[in-house]
UniProtKB/TrEMBL annotation:
Species for this entry: Trabulsiella odontotermitis
Gene3D superfamilies xrefs: 3.30.70.270
Pathway: Purine metabolism; 3',5'-cyclic di-GMP biosynthesis
Entry's EC annotation: 2.7.7.65
Name the UniProt record assigns to this protein: diguanylate cyclase
Lineage: Bacteria, Pseudomonadati, Pseudomonadota, Gammaproteobacteria, Enterobacterales
GO BP terms in the entry: cell adhesion involved in single-species biofilm formation; negative regulation of bacterial-type flagellum-dependent cell motility
Amino acid sequence: MRSYSLTSFTLFREEQPVRDALVVFILTTLFYFFGAMLRMVQELSLFWPLNAVMAGVFARYAFLNRGIHYAVCYVAMLVYDAITTQWGVASLVINLSNMLFIVIVAQLVLRDKRRTNYMPGPLSTLHLFYYCLLAAILSSLLGAVGSVGIDRQAFLPLFADWFSEQFSTGVLFLPCIMTLTRPGAFSGFRLRYLTPVAALLLSIGASILVGGAGSLAFPLPALIWCAVRYPLPLTCLLTLVAGCAEILLVANNIINLAVDAPLQTPQLFSTRLGIAALAMSPVIVAASVDAISKLMKQVALRADFDFLTRVYSRSGLYEALKKIEHTDDSHLTVMLLDLDYFKRINDSYGHECGDYVLASFAQQVKNLVGEKGLVARMGGEEFAIAALTADAAEGYALAERIRNAIEVYPFRWQEDTLRLTVSIGIGTRSPGNAPVSDTFNLLLVEADEYLYRSKEMGRNRTSIRRDEPVLF
């Protein structure tokens, strides 16, 4: 099936601060214009996305958090107002309140990133909820003061309107902005993938038909279904769309919260806050599912790879062997490698040095083997290699190349240079029609026998069955 992918594009580049400042100015102007246009359409005047979008931008790109970039953002707002309004000094105060929301949210999120190895998760999502709450309160206090002379309303109604708008818009938009990614390669979809979206549409339709305050919660089960089925960025986008749709439907009395009375400002205030609270539930679920998925991948990775040496573990090697494809005339060569007198390293330099030597040795062997075979740590200082070779001679030559390279390699620890050697035992034969993993088990026993012989004969040597056509 044909697959599609989008070409790479980077909005900001840390090495180009002038370009970044220009992009910040353009984005601020664009979303300021977008928000102003929404103000002119009664049905859409409930949203002011600029603050949430720019807070998300500054939070995602830590290198943008310089005074100059915040100043550029603020100047862009003032320039737009100077061209399109007659607000004067009020513009300074109102846009300062916008900047207050942006700076507070961005700095708090960045603080989380500095404190932990930040990944979108349930805890960070809950933090985002509280950050929006704090930023909305503080920015609304300032914004309401600046708007008193413009809107000719009392302070408290203005504060309530500012706060509910800032908080609900922040909670709806920020998770989407923070997790927004460019779609990668994808193939044709199947109809059943759209079932959670269909359930979401039906639940919104049910909210319209039934009405009442409880109808606002109808989409929640469908959104949680989306959270379980879809990736985190898509869930955040669907939550944003559903939350905005509900606010619009309530504002236009299509979802009738009070059947016997027209919509009042306190009801819209409550609606915004209620939807914002509901919107966090699917986002938290999606973040939890995403975190669990990443954790499961890490657990699987740790099971297949040795944590210290970054080569296969014993179990990981067997899993990798199942995927090897071989021809009838190819040989499977199995080597067992043991670092000579490794215990002296631990006794003389400590276990930290021993760990360094093991990790460095493993990487040297892995580089020498390359694509020809698989390297695994079998335990302690013992490693195994499984390689497909043309014959026994090629397998022996690879083992000798490894042994000689380790003999001359300088393992540097602090001010000392350590010289090590390795003993190797080899088992080799053609797998024929047998599974590679079964042949590996037989050859591992043989390699272990010849490793013992290498040690008996003075170490730092490679031993193989004498009837193989190999020059000794």
